[in-house]
Amino acid sequence: MTLNSSCGSPEHPVSRRGFLTSLAAMAGTAAVADMTAIQVLGAPAVANELRQQQKRVIMLWLAGGSSQLETFDPKPGVPTGGPFQSIQTSTPGIRISELMPKMARRMRDTTIIRSLNTRNADHGSAAKIMMRGRMSEADIDYPDLGAVMSREMGLESSQVPDYVSFYTATEGRSMAPGHAGFLGARYGSMDLTTSMVPENIRRVNISELDHRERSELRNQLSGMFERGRSSSSLDSHNQAYRRVSGIMANEQLFDIEREPQRVRDRYGPTLFGRQALAARRLCEAGVPFIRVGRAWWDTHAQNFESHQEMVPELDHVMSTLLDDLDERGLLRNTLIVTLAEFGRTPSINSSVGRDHFASAWSTTLSGCGIRGGTVYGRSDASGNRVAEGEIGAARLFATIYRALGINPHKNYYIGARPIPLTDPGTEPIREVLA
Question: Which domains does the chain have, with CATH numbers?
Answer without folding.
Answer: 31-197+255-432 (3.40.720.10)
